[in-house]
Design brief:
Layout lengths: L6 H17 L2 H5 L11 H7 L2 H16 L18 H13 L7 H14 L2 H12 L5 E4 L15 E5 L2 E8 L10 E7 L10 E7 L5 E7 L5 E14 L3 E2 L5 H12 L5 H16 L5 H6 L4 H25 L7 H24 L17 H9 L9 H12 L5
Parallel strand pairs: 1-4
Antiparallel strand pairs: 2-3, 3-7, 4-5, 5-8, 6-7
Helix pairs in contact: 1-5, 3-4, 6-7, 6-8, 9-11, 9-12, 11-12, 12-13, 12-14
Length: 402
């Protein structure tokens, strides 16, 4: 199978590379390889960064807006670039290679495509453009204390109150909620309906009275996720996306976009190459010696990154035919999350006892693999636990009985 670029694709790739090299702020060019959910994240810099980080994030957003590359997959009529699936792949591939942050976060990559499919014209006008401009920064409110992998068991309630809904309950592991001003999520609107029905998809302002956010500090001492509480939060019925009591199916559309990762292979391959270059330097001969026991494992990880790359092409080929990836995206999600854990494990072991060092000033490669090892633990959980992904593959892909 020939994955090389056509002449038009080569031209577009050159355009993307030139634009990134000319417009990516120097702050990002000098930034160390990002780890976890926080480091290098555009939305984190845009909202919570110091003045240099905020300036870099703002400049990069404006640069991408000029090319309509904030949302390259959206139709032009809604401020997107209307790029083909292959051109989107090329753009994201080069962005990942240059460690250039994507702009817009969950609002652009997940909520926007969902509103384009299920939203009314009024909702498209209300939410899409402000999201592109960075005025609406989004968090996702799905998981609850008793509803994580079994999300359909959620209990947070939205009760009809005239033209509004009154929401009560709790959400857990809400990523980006501390740097967002809007949130989308699932709430039960008919407690007597079957498990996957009676759920509606809401969007709401995070500054709504009764909505509060508490931080959760992770094992790497970082603030990545939150718990959110809803106490009689009033939300307009106009903020329901799709049909009432059919929000589960709206959410499944959204999750298919979330699982279609086409940049993970690039990040993993780049980190492997950086590790190999580091080990091959004469001054690092001690680490080259320590790594001798893990060369076979490192080779396996390199080959697996190529497999992941081809999974990404598989998904792109489906999208180019206007097919929404489903179990195929689940395959890619499993492989990507588990590979990120394996390469972090090998990268840490290669440095022997030096792999215990956390301080960037004294640890080899700025403790990248040690830090990434702690972050990669959750990769097989968020976005839909891998056990759930395997069920999707079994039933929707292989046709096995439930």
């Amino acid at each position: 199978m020939d994955w090389s670029d056509s002449e038009n694709q080569k031209k577009f790739r050159t355009e993307v590379i030139d634009y990134i090299e000319k417009n990516l702020p120097n702050y990002y060019k000098k930034l160390k390889p990002p780890t976890g959910l926080e480091s290098g994240d555009w939305q984190n810099f845009f909202v919570l960064g110091d003045k240099y980080q905020k300036q870099a994030a703002s400049d990069w957003m404006k640069a991408l807006q000029k090319k309509s590359w904030v949302a390259p997959h959206w139709p032009k009529q809604y401020g997107g670039a209307g790029l083909s699936s292959i051109d989107q792949f090329i753009l994201h591939q080069e962005m990942a290679f240059h460690d250039a942050p994507s702009v817009g976060g969950q609002g652009v990559s997940m909520l926007g495509p969902t509103i384009l499919i299920h939203g009314t014209d009024e909702q498209k006008q209300m939410f899409l453009q402000p999201t592109l401009e960075g005025k609406m920064l989004w968090a996702q409110g799905f998981s609850e204390p008793g509803a994580g992998s079994d999300l359909a068991s959620l209990q947070a309630r939205a009760e009809k109150n005239g033209d509004n809904y009154q929401i009560n309950g709790q959400k857990l592991w809400t990523s980006r909620s501390h740097k967002s001003n809007w949130i989308f999520g699932l709430f039960r609107t008919d407690p007597d309906a079957p498990k996957h029905r009676g759920i509606s998809f809401f969007v709401m302002n995070q500054n709504s009275p009764g909505l509060s956010v508490n931080p959760i500090i992770d094992m790497a001492w970082e603030h990545s996720t939150n718990e959110t509480f809803y106490e009689n939060v009033e939300v307009s019925s106009n903020n329901v996306i799709g049909e009432e009591n059919r929000g589960w199916y709206v959410a499944m559309t959204l999750l298919d976009y979330e699982r279609s990762n086409i940049s993970g292979a690039v990040h993993i391959r780049k980190r492997i190459n950086e590790l190999i270059d580091f080990l091959n330097k004469k001054e690092n001969i001690i680490f080259n010696y320590l790594s001798s026991r893990f060369r076979s494992a490192l080779t396996d990880r390199y080959i697996e990154s190529e497999v992941l790359f081809n999974f990404s092409f598989r998904i792109v080929s489906l999208q180019s035919k206007d097919i929404v990836p489903n179990y195929e995206a689940s395959v890619s999600k499993i492989f990507n999350s588990e590979l990120s854990q394996k390469i972090s494990n090998v990268g840490t072991k290669i440095f022997g006892l030096y792999g215990n060092l956390w301080d960037e000033k004294t640890a080899p490669m700025d403790a990248y693999f040690t830090r990434e090892y702690t972050h990669s633990v959750v990769r097989t959980i968020f976005g839909g636990a891998n056990e759930i992904q395997r069920n999707i593959i079994a039933t929707r892909g292989l046709g096995l009985p439930r």
